[in-house]
Amino acid sequence: MCFYSMSYYKAPRRYSNGRNFGVETHQGFAADIVPRRPYGNRMNKGPNKWSRNLVWTASDDNMPRKNGSTYGSTKPQGSGTSANVSEQQMKNAAHGQRGSSVSDTRRWGSNDKGSPKSKECVCKFWKAGNCKKGDQCSFLHSWTSLPGMVMVAALEGHKKDLKGIALPQGSDKLFSASSDGTLKIWDCHTGQCAHTINLQAEAGSLMSEGPWVFLGLPNAVKAFNVQTSKDLHLNGVVGQVRAMTVGNGMLFVGTSSGSISVWKATNSESDPFTYLTSLEGHHSGEVTCFIVGGQQLYSGSVDKTIKVWDLNTLECTTTLRQHTDTVTSLLCWDQYLISSSLDGTIKVWACSENGSLKVTNTRRQGQSVHTLSGITDAEDKPIVFCSYENGTVSICDLPSFEERGKMFFSTNTVGTITIGPDGLLFTGDKSGKLRVWSLAGTKV
Asked: Where are the zinc fingers (C3H1-type) (predicted)?
């Protein structure tokens, strides 16, 4: 596999028209989070059977396969813990290799408040949408029909829809951001909220890469390192940040204005991110989602298109126009691109004979599809989680899309799904509820 050398990178022409893009240091954000639990005395539990995400394999020149090729799967490789996001770490992310090693002191214990009292008894009033007891109800409200999967914690506190859930490497804290203007930090030992930070602005996106947590705000991105407590403010973003991803040594930030801002990760402790450029004039509407596969970046938008970008040149090479409504989520798996949309479809893309991306399979769901998340299970079989408007999440095998089971969330649409280590899954819905699930069927 050939990685692009950042040392020979020549920045493309800027589209910022002279705007002053900089990095400012703010200590208030860090002061709200530290002190943290120490990271010492970790135990080696052995390899994790559950991979964190589906990956884009290295064969076929890192491009989607041609029609008729056989589906397959591959395992991601964990990355080591570091105080900085290095160029190589972000390059690895281009191939789905996000680190899954975390502090082994993190647990969701049996004393978690909000844990279901029964695996079998589902509240019939909740299913009908009119249970008045809420969290005091002795029967299940959120549940799943997938064998071996249980809900282990219900984390309450956000008032509006969750925009992101992050479990940074080397931390025993879970981060969640909501459009209610708060960032919450949860203790993984107790399931309790350790800190609530009033952002004084709407959070639009949240993600982590290595020890870094990235928070998308109006016209800015917060970057916080959980190991060093370094706290940065990336200026110059135009519009509310709605999507973020990393790949090939770069941070990509998509906004409500349709622009994509790009920063390069460095090995400098004092200046870990350097602004490169702003990709403007391509999407005519809000950028809603990203995925990196091989040497390409894929961006989805409310303008109904998917843009394909070359990570080496940052040029837009292709525009995909098969969806008829907002593109909501993107996933790369085994040389295939999978996309979902408010038009009620999930599309599978592959390379045609002439090298262009073509739809090879369209799954019509009959309702809006809001997010996709993929993993390989304990038997190395790929499965995908598909969230729908009616508050359900289908769990399907790939490539058949045969349904294994479902997750039920009443009428609250799940807008974010984050795969954690050791069989953990985190879901956030439009009402602000955050749920922790164990895919292995046991509490971790």
From this structure: 122-144
